[in-house]
Amino acid sequence: MRVLMILVVFAFCALYDGMTRLNKAPKREIVVYAVLMFVSMVVPIYVYLKGVGIPSPNYAIERIIDFLFHINK
Amino acid sequence: MKRDSVTINQGIFMVLLFMFGSSVIMGVNTIVVQDTWIAMLLGALIALPLLLMYGQILSRFPGKDLFEIAEITLGKKFGLLVTLAVTWYALHLAALVLRDFSDFVHITLLAETPQLPILLLMILTSVYLTRSGVRAIGKWSVAIILFVFSVVIFTFAAALRLIQLDDILPFMEHPPQKILYAGAQIASFPYAESVLFLCLGGAFPKGQPKRIYVTALLISTVIFLLTFLRNVTLLGPKMYEVNFYPSYVTARIIQLGNFLTRIEGSISSNFLMTGIVKISVCLTAAAKGISRLCNLPDYKTMAMPAGMFVFMLSLMLYDNTMDVFHFLDYYLIYAVPFQVLIPLLIFFVAEVEARRSRKSLRQGG
Question: What is the pLDDT averaged over residues B56-63?
C-alpha cells in the first residue's frame, strides 16, 4: 500500500510537471529532474520492500562529531 | 521580468515565522530548565552579530543570492563548493523540520495514521508554496502572522490564573558555562538558521536586510520568552524538562471556565503554518542551489525534485522520535560551517575588496 502510494504520488507529480513545465524546458533540466525524482522514489520503495534501513546522515554526522570532539552522550 | 521581491513587513514576518518554525511547539533548548530565559537572552545576543553580518552581505550585493555572491567573492571553484554545502544544509534542514512535523502529528493528533501520507501532504503543500515564489511566501506570512500572535497571546492570557511564578526560581541554579552553552545552542537553533535567507537573493528590499533581521530577532525573542514563561510556570521545571512538546502539553491544561477547553488544536495549527514557511524557504534555497549547480535557467522547476528528495531524506533520518532531541546536542557543531564559517569568509572577502576599491578610487580621484 505504501509502495503504491509513493508510486502514485511520484507519477502524478512527474506527469503534472511534464505537461506544464518540462515540455518547454531544456534537455539538461529534464535529465536533472528525472534523476532526482527517480532516486527520491526508488530509495523509499527499496526500504519498504526490502525492510532494510538505509544509513542515516544524522547518525553519520553524530559519529563524525563524536570522533572529532568526543561529545560521548 | 518581475522581480520576486517582498516588502519590509513581509520580509520581517517571513524571517519571524522561519525562526518560530519548529521551536513554537518543541520549545527552545531546555537543558537549563528554569534558567532558559537567561539562555534565550544570551542566545539573542550571540545571534545578533551573525544576523547583522548576513544583512551586511545582502546589502553589499543587492539583487544577488548567496550562490552568486560566493562565486564573485571566492571564485568559481570555491563558489561551487559553497553552493553544494549550502544546498545540502537547506535540504537537510527541510527534512529535519518535515520529520518533526510528521512525528508531532503522528504522536499527538493522528496516532493510527501512518507517517507516509502526513509527510507527503506536508511536502506537497510546501512545494506548491515554493513554486509560487518568494512573494507568495511573504504574503502567506502576513496572512498567518496575526493568527500566530493571537494564539500565543491568548494562551498566555488564559494561563495567567494558573501560573506559579515560584517555578522560575531558583535563579542561576545551573552553572554559567552550561547557561552559555544553552545560549549558543539557541543562537544556532533557531536564530542563525535564517542564514538560508541569503539564498533568496534580491527578495528583501534594498537597504533593509539588516533592519528585517534585527526586527525579526527582537520580536521572536519576546515571543519565545513569553512562551517559555507560560510553559515553565504551568508545567513546573521537572515536567518542562522531560516533555518533548511543552507548548502542546501546556495548552492541554489551559481552559476558560467550562466552555473553552481543548485549545491545543490552535497550538498544532500554529506549528503547521509556521513549519510550512520554514520548509518552503529551505526548499527555495535548495532549488536555487540545485539549479545553480546544474546551470539551469529557472529554479522553480527544481522545487518538486528538491521536495521529493527532502521527503526521502526525512524517512531515513531517525529510527525514533527521541533521536530527534539527541541530534540537537550535535547540531550546534554541525551547523557552525554553514551558519558562521561560510558567511564569515564571504563577509571578510567582500569587506576587504570593498575597502580596496574605495582606496583605489580615492587615490585615482
Answer: 90
